[in-house]
Structures are given as C-alpha cells and as structure tokens.
Amino acid sequence: MDPELIKDCVHCGFCLPTCPTYVLWGEEMDSPRGRIHLMKQHTEGTPITPVMAGHFDACLGCMACVTACPSGVRYDLLIEQTRAEVERAVVRDPRERAIRGLVFGLFPYPRRLRLLRPGLRTARRLAPFLARAHPSLGAMAALAPEVPVRQRLPRLVRARGPRRAVVGMLTGCVQREFFPQVNAATARVLALEGCDVVIPPGQGCCGALSVHAGQEAQARRLAARTIRTFRKAGVDTVVVNAAGCGSSMKEYEAPGFRVVDLSEFLAELGPAAERHPLEVSAAYHDACHLAHAQGIRRQPRELLAAIPGLRLKEVPEAAICCGSAGTYNVFQPEAARDLGDRKAASVAATGAELLISANPGCTMQIAAAMARAGRPIRVAHTAEVLDASLRGVRL
C-alpha cells in the first residue's frame, strides 16, 4: 500500500453515493474513504485482521469512486495493492481457501472451463443444493449461462475489401468458452470494417481475474504469457471485447504493446461498411471496467446509435455496479445478489427488449438477476449487435 497515494484522499465523501457497498449498507468502513483509512492504519503498523480483511474483500473494485473523486485518488491502484497484501498476510479458513483454490485453478484456464460446458444446465438445476454445501458453489451454478455450439476461429480472418488495419484479437477464458459467439462476431465485425484479424493459438487468461483478487504471482505469469503470445504473432495492437480484460491489459508494462477495447478501436477507425436496420429497443449497460476503469462511455453509444432502427435506452443508476466484478459474485454472493436485483429493476424500468453488455461477467450476472425477477431479457454483446447490422441478419 503506497502511503503517498493514501495521502491524496481528503475524505470529502464524494465517493460515498457511487460506492455499491456503501449504497447497500451505509457503513463507513465499507466505503472507499473508510477502506483508505484502514489502509492508512496498516501502513502505520496495524496488522490486517480478519475483520479488516472483510472490509477489503467486500469492495467490488468497480472504480466508480475513481470517476467521482475530485482529488484524483488512485483507489484502483490502492485496492489492487491491498488485495495482494491481504492474500499474503491473512490466513483464511479452510473452506474459503478451498473455494479460492477451485476458482483460481479453474477460471483462468480455458481448457479446464471447457470440461464444465456439458454440465452447465444440470448445475443450474442443482444450484440450491450446492448452495447448502457452500454459498459460492451455489452462486457459480446459478450463474452458469446457456452456451451455444463452440465455434472454432481460424488463426487469421482476412479483411473484407481494402485492408485498413492489422490487429490481434484476445479470445480470453470465460469469453472463449462460455460466449464463443461473441468472439466470432468480434472477428467478423473487424473484418467487415477492413481489418486483418490475427487470432494466435495458445491464448489463455490475460490475468485480469487474478490481479483483481490479489493473486499477484498468477496474474504476472498469465500477463507475461499473453504478451509473448501476441508478440510472437507479430501484432502490436490487440483488440479486446471484455471490459475487465481490457482494463487489466492496459496496465501491462510492455512498451510497444497497445491494447484497445473493441468499441474504442472501431470509433477511432471510423465506419466503412454499410449498417442495415435493426428494429429493436435496447438498453446499454455500462460495464464498470469499461466506463470507470477505461473511461469508455461515448464510443459504444455512438456505434449503436448509428444503427438504423435501433432505439437506445439509458439504464437508471448506470454508474452502480451490477455485482459481477470479476469473481465478486462468487466470493460475496449475498451482496452480489442484492446488487444484481437492483440492476435488474433498473434494466426492467427501461422497457427495453434487449440488453447490450460488453463484459461476460455482467452478462451472466444481469441475465440471472432478470430471470430471478421473472423478467428474462435477451442479452447481447456490442459486437453481436454490430455484426447483425453489418451483415443484415436478425439479431
């Protein structure tokens, strides 16, 4: 924990109404400035106790406070450092260690995730029973999505028409195995807009899930492998379609290695292909690691607004996290459920037929919450919506 970063906080309280856990509980120690006070105590010699660790664990790392802060406090760096320190200093109870071992031995590894695919439907049915064994097991099962047929992507997708750019594309871990249609749509959109898309084999997790949860050594190892993979493929610009992944990859200390979100890249490139009408009312969900961590809000809205017939609706309380937050909805299922229900009510209030999301965790979280509320809704990634419009097919 950097004492100099801690000093930047003047405890003004602008962060309070943007913090999901403070909104839920109204507890000072579960607000950004409260957690910064605990960090200061630790730098002055106070050991991290289980109670103190609980307040840090309860943080979603959504970075809404970073957007709201008038003093420029780098809470994103502080909570990342703090989580790594918690993992080093705190001995968790055996059941918690077992769950964390399961999650970080499974989710960052696409091949292991693939083994789960045939059993996801059964897992959803068994969620209440698994929750009795451990709430995190029940949460994982309840979030399991419907996975379409796996789509194999070639190593190179050629540009349609004149080539305007050459980019690499991250396939990811959860995105690759649970939402393969999103990666396929991303590659098609980039190709239709004049890009050669390089999709290197041997990709895995970028390290985002690990770094967000304080698993420092694993995060560094996965990040280094990701950089090597794309450099070996000969690309220096990597397009990412998952908000959490893009947020972490932009923090890589790798000169000449540029990471851009899909919507950010397409906005920079400018449109070349014709947009066909999509007659649908859609609500756009701001993923926290896109809006707050990367500052990308305008670009996806502009891309969607350019589609004829698409009626874009804003979600109330857009800045409040849906409760997904990487592995948060697994490790903090009760708080995540409350935030998911709150987000579901906001989405339902728009009356939209379709929800557009740019992060796989958000997609699973909000879809599950909407179904729980008896208001199921179609959820599509920004790439899927653009793909349907560019190809002139039904969404």
UniProtKB/TrEMBL annotation:
Domain of life: Bacteria
The UniProt record lists the keyword Iron-sulfur: yes
InterPro entries: 4Fe4S_Fe-S-bd, 4Fe4S_Fe_S_CS, Cys_rich_dom, Glc_ox_4Fe-4S, Helical_ferredxn
Cofactor descriptive note: Binds 2 [4Fe-4S] clusters.
Pfam families: CCG, Fer4_8
Record domain 4Fe-4S ferredoxin-type: where: 1-29, 50-80
EC id: 1.1.99.14
Keywords of this entry: 4Fe-4S, Electron transport, Iron, Iron-sulfur, Metal-binding, Repeat, Transport
Manganese as UniProt keyword: no
Reaction(s) this enzyme catalyzes, per UniProt: (R)-lactate + A = pyruvate + AH2; glycolate + A = glyoxylate + AH2
Cofactor(s) required for function per UniProt: [4Fe-4S] cluster
Reported function: Component of a complex that catalyzes the oxidation of glycolate to glyoxylate.
Name of the protein in question: Glycolate oxidase iron-sulfur subunit
